[in-house]
Amino acid sequence: MVAIGVKAGGEREGLGFDVEAQVAALLEEAEEDVLADMAFPPEHGRRIHSTNVLERLNRELARRFDVVGVFPDGAAALRLLGAVLEEQQEEWMASRKDFSSESMTRRTPAPGSFSEAATLKEGVHDF
């Protein structure tokens, strides 16, 4: 079993390395990706860890594709997909402010990390 934790000061702590060295090395390499959501404010947690939005989008896509039935070609299906995604994006932008510019500025990326480089600049993205 392997458990990797991060202390309050950002120091990494490994617990119980009773596994193959390869697995431990993979976890070490993937540490930043695995712990990426920790850079977000706690109130973002319920949205980050939930697949509800994605499941709802997939149901909407399936419903729209079922209405059409058979598409003349792949381009027609792609146009419908694009239209549905654009419509959903407009709805999300108008109604959801979970990832607003204000809340995104409260992110706490580690100095010099990829997360720090990817920190959104105010006004660039309006989630």
TrEMBL record:
PANTHER family: TRANSPOSASE FOR INSERTION SEQUENCE ELEMENT IS1081 (PTHR33217:SF7). This is Mutator family transposase. Required for the transposition of the insertion element. It comes from Hydrogenibacillus schlegelii (Bacillus schlegelii). Belongs to the transposase mutator family. Keywords: DNA recombination, DNA-binding, Transposable element, Transposition. It comes from the Bacteria. Residues 94-119 are annotated as: Disordered. GO terms for molecular function: DNA binding; transposase activity.
